[in-house]
Amino acid sequence: MSRVTIKSIANDLGISHMTVSRALANSPKVQKETRAAVQKRARELGYVKSAVAMVMRGDAPKIVGLLLPNIVNEFYARFANDMAAACDAQSQQLIIHLTNDDLTAQQQALDRLQEVQAASVVMVPALRHGNEGAPFAGTMRVIELIRQDNDTESTAALLVDDGPAINEAVTHLANAGHKDIAYIGANHELSSGRNRLNAFLRGAEAAGLNVAESLIRTGVPTFAMGRSHAKNIIDSGTATAMVCGGFEISNGVLSAVLERSNRTTQEIAFIGYGDPSFYDWVDNGVSTIQVPVTELAERAAKMVALEAGESAASASFAARLILR
C-alpha cells in the first residue's frame, strides 16, 4: 500500500495540494467547510505528517526530552506524567528516556534527542566517576532535575530545598525522646546526597545529639541499599529512629521497618523521603518529607518552552515534613 501524502489527498478530493497543506495546518485562509473535509479525509486515509518534511520547511514539532533513572520510583513516574500533560498543553512533544543512572545510556539518550532536533532536555544527571567526561547535549537547552552534575553547576536546575524539612524531622524525633537517630541516604558524590546529609547533621547538632558514625549510612540510592542498611541497623539495636534521604532508599528502609514490627513489639520510628500514594495508609500512615512534584513539573514545562536564546533561571522548591 502506497504512503498517503498531501498530493494524494489533493488528487482524491480534486483540489490543490497547497489547499490541502493549509487545511491540515488549520489555516484560516481555507474555508471552514473545506478544512473539515480535508482533515476528515486525511484521517480516513491514515495520513501521517512527515517529520523530515516539517524540518525542511522549518516548522518541526517542538520536541522536549526527559531523562530519568527509572519510572519504578513513584516520584519519577508522577513527574513524567505531570510534565507530559504540561507539555501537551503547550503543543510540545515529550520523549522520555530511562538511563538507569548509567552514563553510557544517558549519552545515548542525549544523542538520540539531538538526532530528532530536540530543543530542550530535562534530566536527572547520572553519577560520574574519576575522569569520565561531562554529558554532551549539543545545542539543546539542559535543565538538571533534583541533582546537579559536578562540572555543570552553571546549567539551569530544578532543585528541592529539603534542608529545613530534614532539620524539622530530626527535631521532631529528638523532641519525642529519640537520642540515637540513624540516617540512610545517597552517597556524597551526588549533590543531593551531600546536601541532605549535611541538613541531617545540622539538625542533629541543633538538637544536641551526637550521631555515631555507624548510624550514618550512604550509598547508591536504590531500594536494596536502603533495605540492607536498615536491616543492619535494626539488628544491631543501635538506633531507635531513622531518617531517609532518597525516594527509593525510603521504600527499602520502610520495608525493613515493617518487617521488624511484624516480628517484635519493639518499634523503630521512621521518617521517609518522598510521598508515594501508599504512605498515606500503610501502617496507619507514614511520616515523610514530601516533595512538590507537580510544581516541579509545571516549572520544567515553562523552562523548556522558552524561545531559543532565552536563558532559563534555576528554581528551588521547598519540601515539607508530613507527620502522620
SSE diagram, text form:
Layout: H1 6-13, H2 17-24, H3 32-45, H4 51-57, E1 62-68, H5 74-89, E2 92-98, H6 103-115, E3 120-123, E4 141-145, E5 156-161, H7 163-175, E6 181-186, H8 191-206, E7 216-219, H9 223-236, E8 241-245, H10 247-261, E9 269-273, E10 288-290, H11 293-304, E11 315-318, E12 320-322
Parallel strand pairs: 1-2, 1-3, 3-4, 4-5, 5-11, 6-7, 6-8, 8-9, 9-10
Antiparallel strand pairs: 10-12
Helix pairs in contact: 1-2, 2-3, 5-11, 7-8, 9-10
Q: Number of helical runs?
A: 11
Strand percentage lies at 15-25%
pLDDT averaged residue by residue = 88
Largest beta sheet, briefly?
6 strands, parallel
Q: Looking across the biggest beta sheet, what order are the strands in?
A: 2-1-3-4-5-11
Rounded to the nearest angstrom, the radius of gyration is 25 Å
- Helix/sheet category: alpha/beta
Tally of strands: 12
Termini gap: 61 Å
Helix content: 40-55%
The general outline is: elongated
Q: Regions with pLDDT < 50 over 5+ consecutive residues? A: none
Question: Which H/E pattern describes the elements?
Answer: HHHHEHEHEEEHEHEHEHEEHEE
What does this protein look like?
The chain is of the alpha/beta class and 324 residues long. The chain is built from 11 helices and 12 strands. Helix 5 links the parallel strand 1 and strand 2 (92-98). Helix 2 packs across helix 3, helix 5 (74-89) crosses helix 11 and helix 7 packs parallel to helix 8 (191-206). The longest helix is centred in the N-terminal third of the chain and has 16 residues, at 74-89. It is elongated.
